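Supplementary Text 2. Reproducibility record for the structural model of the 246-residue chain.

All settings were left at their defaults, and a single model was retained for analysis rather than an ensemble. We include the record here because the model underlies the residue-level annotations in Supplementary Table 4.
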Amino acid sequence: MIEIDNMYEQSKIYGHHCENLRLLEKSLKHTEISAKKAISSKDKNNCLSTLLRLYAFLLGAWAETRLKKLLHEGRGFSKKERDIVLKNNKQHIQWENTIKNAFRKHYKISKLNKINLGELGVARLNSILEIIKNDLKIIIEIRNKLAHGQWKYPFTDNGDKVDKEKYCLINKENLLSLKFKYEILEHLTEVIHDLIVSKVTFERDFEKHFKKLNQTKMNLKKRSYQKYEDNLIKAFEVSKYKKYKK
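Retained model, structure tokens:
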């Protein structure tokens, strides 16, 4: 009876995380639309920088909520296993522990090494952890700065000086780069979802997901924001001209 009650409670909490995620995705979409309008009108209302910071904040909130949803998947972790993951208050460590524990659980092993996982398994594990370290971690850190009101000048952890690296990241972000980062997180969490829910699906679809993820990373590096901005402005002006002609 206790086990059934626990399953019901987990299912209910999972549903709450799903609803939170749905509303965050809706908020991200609305913010994107508003930012596009600001770009199209050459930011005549001087609101683009605010919208970009809001988008970055929401993206970090999305990542945190997506992790909670992953931890409450029906065929995933027990309460004890979740508590172990969440014991560390650093979110990027929670992500890393979630992934490592999922590998241990599905491959029925205690040590994550080449003997137990094989060359391919270790390569996949390291690829996921590398995305956490190089892409997700900074999104989490930027969200934390923005959540503390550091919208232009982010401070170091002890608060005695401006964090120059984070300052550049916050103030040089644009809508196109943020959209690509969102896509990277979506592809990453699809991989982790498969890992948690089904070992077979994870192994079958890993390459497909990572191909999309790596293509998005390439787009992030190579796509021209200036061209993106010019296209939005041009489309807006054409639309305005058509309305005028009517």
